[in-house]
Automatic annotation (TrEMBL):
The gene coding this protein: murF
Residues where ATP binds: 120-126
Pathway per the UniProt entry: Cell wall biogenesis; peptidoglycan biosynthesis
Any GO MF annotation of the entry: ATP binding
Protein name per its UniProtKB record: UDP-N-acetylmuramoyl-tripeptide--D-alanyl-D-alanine ligase
Amino acid sequence: MSNTGLGKNLSELYELYCENGGQVTTDSRTVAAQAASHDGVGPVFFALKGENFDGNDYAVQAIADGAAAAVVQGRLPRGVEAESEEAARYIVVKDTLAALQELAAHHRETLGLPVIALTGSNGKTTTKELTARILRTKYRVACTEGNLNNHIGVPLTLLSIREDDDAAIVEMGANHRGEIAALCALAKPDIGLITNVGRAHLEGFGGPEGVRLGKGELYDYLAAHGGTAFYSADDPVLAGMVSERFGKSEGTALGYTAADLGISAVSGTEGDRLVLALSGGGETATGMTGGYNLSNVAAAMAVGRYFGIGAAEALAAVASYVPDNNRSQVAVSARGTGNTLYMDAYNANPSSMAAALDNFLALPVAGERVAILGDMRELGDFAAAEHRAVVGRLAAWPGIRCYLVGPEFGAVVSGTENERRAYPSAEALAEALKSGEIVIRDAHVLVKGSRGIALEKLYPLL
């Protein structure tokens, strides 16, 4: 955040940001539409630079499309003279990403409202959405949109907070140690929640212990700055992490359980949907599949309770959540195949794969079950063992038909009887479905894999 070259321009840029309705963008293609929707007042365009692109190349077009200003890196864009009137529309900084982060941190400090940070190996986006819905029953809440949870997304989330918001929820993702700490330095959370610590991004974190330390950076920040950490008291890993950090710190750690919140999962009443019972009576059907989502609901309700929202009101908000973006979605085929799809192909790691399979195999539904599983990415030296473990888990359920997709699964089943059901890519499996080599009808179908495998391409065929 320091040494951006922004210097005295920070106050000038912040004033401009406020005057244009708090609009910023890193995508020049959105400038015209944003300006049109704000009576001609455009956003501040940040010309980020990456390995394969240079935002400076798009800055002139962004200004032409209505950007209020363009923050450019190192130099004025080609063709813009330093002493020209046009040059006044550009702010030259040493590092545009650092400038974006500095502006976001300044905005967060200026507003001074409570910031709730969420991270975890699995379930953080679902928990974020549930928490936002619960808190919005009583408050105005800004929240991370989609999956904008990295070093670019978090600043954009902070800059989306408005003066009349009561609180903000910031999702934080990471695949290396140090990333959560850096995001905390930007967002300065007052409250934090780690959903769980699983076997995700093992390559970047260097193994399971690296994951625990990396995710624990959120607890580190809260303990050092007198913040409040929520944790599932049923999770021994999280309980241990809290004990290590909060025993003698000025921070506060609040444990919760589903039972203590007065909720439990009811099996069988809605087939493939998660149904929750309230201890005082009554059941609430959710739009989510998966008993594992009970922990996500409990986390969101614990935060809601802290902010004075009762269990019944919170559950009503939970019921309004309909998953999207390939997370815990259930869909019945509208194309006559008779299939029910369990779409969970946004991401996958060994922990989420095990949870999805266990839930799928335990569903109280009749009919054939088919699992289409894609590679789990970013596992490094752990990849072969973890993919082999999934194949072993499937072997315990001989009644399930399974298709494996991707080179990692292909490598571990090579030369075995499972090899004939392994496909190198989603496209290859799609061709088998189109040709009739594989027919899946009137079945319950789990589709689970890492985003890079693109299993969502199979949905129209299923």
